[in-house]
Amino acid sequence: MSEARQRVLYVDDEPNYAKFYVKKVEELFEVTYVEEADKALAILSEQAGSLAAVVLDVMMPVPPGADDHETDSGFETGLWLLDMFQKRNNRQYPFPVVILTNRRVDLIRTGMERRSLDSSVISIHRKIETPAFALPKIIQSAIAGHARK
């Protein structure tokens, strides 16, 4: 009897780019892929306890119900998503977050600090420096690190 695979939520608005990453991640994990931040927020709110990790793009379209200021005109939509999850659920993340983005890391860290996001469960990786074959191991490492906390 095979063991159930851990679940990963993968959020990225660029399906043509994400498909290579998702395909590799699916080799080790059960993946739910969504392109919109509002759909991801609904999944997080309903299924957070069953997720082993979240892979998240940061630069995505402004979701319905948010304004440009809240998402820095889409440059911080992924951070908005984490912030909204934390506020709506009045808790920290029960899963590690792997940010996979083209945005500069220093800008993401500044946005995280401004929103008081828990950087101890968030790792940041640039797409240009992260080949698809490396992502499953990054996720495994994030899960292992989160389990030790």
Describe what is shown at a glance.
Helices cover 42% and strands 17% of the residues.
Description:
The protein is an alpha/beta fold and 149 residues long. The protein has helices at 15-25, 37-47, 68-71, 77-89, 105-115, 135-147, and strands spanning 7-11, 30-34, 51-56, 97-101, 122-126. It has a single domain, classed as Response regulator (Rossmann fold, 3-Layer(aba) Sandwich). It has 6 helices and 5 strands. Helix 1 (15-25) links the parallel strand 1 and strand 2. The termini are far apart. The mean pLDDT is 91.
Query: In the CATH hierarchy, what is the class?
Result: Alpha Beta
Give the strand order of the largest sheet, numbering strands 1, 2, ... along the chain: 2-1-3-4-5
> Can you tell me the CATH architecture?
3-Layer(aba) Sandwich
Uncertain runs: none
At CATH level 3, the topology is: Rossmann fold
Largest sheet: 5 strands, parallel
Structural class: alpha/beta
Radius of gyration: 14 Å
Rounded mean pLDDT is: 91
CA-based shape: globular
Helical percent range? Answer: 40-55%
Total discrete domains:
1
**CATH H level, superfamily name:** Response regulator
Number of helices: 6
Amount of beta strand = 15-25%
- Series of secondary-structure elements, N-terminal to C-terminal: EHEHEHHEHEH
Note the gap between the termini. Answer: 30 Å
Please tally the β strands and state the result. Answer: 5
List strands and helices in order, with pairings:
Layout: E1 7-11, H1 15-25, E2 30-34, H2 37-47, E3 51-56, H3 68-71, H4 77-89, E4 97-101, H5 105-115, E5 122-126, H6 135-147
Helix pairs in contact: 2-4
